[in-house]
Amino acid sequence: MELLKLFLSFLKIGAFTFGGGYAMVPLIQNEAIEVHGWLTNKEFIDILAIVEMTPGPIAINSATFLGYKVGGILGSILATTAVVLPSFVIIILIAHFLSKFKDSPYVDWAFIGIRPVVLGLIISASISVARNAFIDFKSVIIGVVLFYLISFKNIHPILSIVLAGVAGVLLF
């Protein structure tokens, strides 16, 4: 029964999230913590850190990792399949009908309307993660310094992860 819940949760996440992995974070968080209790807030932040450090899309990495935690290898397969299945089906349908509707102003207007929602979901995920990641003043300093280095000094994200890890070891 838990595997069916896992599959349906990630199918819903994959079907109703536009904007990629970051936009999925609030939905994954809600399903994993609030709805099913598969994770605590701390575990979710830890998983989020792991999936952002590993290659691949956040949604797929999250589904694979959480699926494994809930149901082992079969759970990983089911959650990963469920999260990509809606996109796969939608892309197949879009490819089939694209030539017919590609110049439609309604399609353009729909995407213009969806863009702000995607931004809102990403901001919501960022605020939610920040609430749980910033546990004290030292963690806020690490976050602010690395945000500055990434955003304005263009340091590589991998280097920022290493620097954050070193700062964590030194400060905590």
Automatic annotation (TrEMBL):
The keyword Transmembrane helix applies. It comes from the Bacteria. It is found in: Cell membrane. It is a multi-pass membrane protein. GO terms for molecular function: chromate transmembrane transporter activity. InterPro entries: CHR_Transporter (IPR052518), Chromate_transpt (IPR003370). GO terms for cellular component: plasma membrane. It holds the Pfam family Chromate_transp. Its main location: membrane. The chain crosses the membrane at residues 6-25, 73-97, 109-129, 141-171. The keyword Zinc does not apply. Keywords: Cell membrane, Membrane, Transmembrane, Transmembrane helix. Belongs to the chromate ion transporter (CHR) (TC 2.A.51) family. This is Chromate transporter. It comes from Anaerosalibacter massiliensis.
